[in-house]
Amino acid sequence: MKLPRIILVTGTDTGVGKTITTAALATALQQRGCSVAVYKPCQSGNVDGDSDCAEVVRLAGPLTAEAGIVLEQPLAPVPAAACDEVVLPQLASHAQRIRALANTHDHVLVEGAGGVLVELDHDGGTLADLGSLLGDSAGFAVVARPSLGTLNHTALTLEALDRRGLPVVGVVLGSWPAVPGAVERSNRATISGWPVPLLGAIRHEAAALAPEAFREQAASWLEGVPA
């Protein structure tokens, strides 16, 4: 499938590598001559200095990157907002901003919070619902672990998107080890045989690379990303 203007980057769980995948994808697209914006609807963990937008800019280089709301505690958006005693923006507000960014950039990468069904507002709206609001201009990239258990988690995420009629660009394996074992090799081979494309695998500890080295290597990790 052709790469959509808006790519929603979701994960099979938290900590699977969504931010690093977003940075690698942003890098690869910029190297193709595309202008890229990154949007994070809900950023949690500010009290610990967490900023996925800042990390993407550090690794990928200068680009537009912004969060819809920044929350202090490292929790899912709804409980984090309760701790901060703030009201989360509605999905329609996020969709409006994403469309505005899409009008001035070739691609907008939208990084979710945790998995695809984590609630982003007080009405139960999820990243899947945000994808529905954005319509035909949006598609999902699913980031998964390469380790044991990933086949079930990845299949459940893909099933949730398919049941909602939401297009999937492909799957990315996060934290691919330098020396993959039998489990990782088997999981990669299995996912490669699924109807949804395998876009690539992000090198383990890619975030520890110097930004220059990250930018040099990023496109090679995502060799399956369509034009």
TrEMBL record:
Residues noted as binding ATP in the record, renumbered to the chain: 15-20, 52, 111-114, 174-175, 212
Enzyme Commission code: 6.3.3.3
UniProt-recorded Gene Ontology molecular function terms: dethiobiotin synthase activity
Compartment annotation: Cytoplasm
Key words, A-Z: ATP-binding, Biotin biosynthesis, Cytoplasm, Ligase, Magnesium, Metal-binding, Nucleotide-binding
Active site: 40
Keyword flag NAD: no
Chain residues that bind Mg(2+): 19, 52, 111
One Pfam family in the UniProt entry: AAA_26
Catalytic class of the enzyme: ligase
Catalytic activity annotation: (7R,8S)-7,8-diammoniononanoate + CO2 + ATP = (4R,5S)-dethiobiotin + ADP + phosphate + 3 H(+)
Residues reported to bind substrate: 44
Pathway this chain belongs to: Cofactor biosynthesis; biotin biosynthesis; biotin from 7,8-diaminononanoate: step 1/2
InterPro entries: DTB_synth_BioD
Cofactor needs: Mg(2+)
Domain of life: Bacteria
Subunit structure: Homodimer.
NCBIfam families (UniProt xref): bioD
Family label: Belongs to the dethiobiotin synthetase family.
Protein function: Catalyzes a mechanistically unusual reaction, the ATP-dependent insertion of CO2 between the N7 and N8 nitrogen atoms of 7,8-diaminopelargonic acid (DAPA, also called 7,8-diammoniononanoate) to form a ureido ring.
Protein name as catalogued: ATP-dependent dethiobiotin synthetase BioD
Organism encoding this protein: Paenarthrobacter aromaticivorans
Name of the gene: bioD
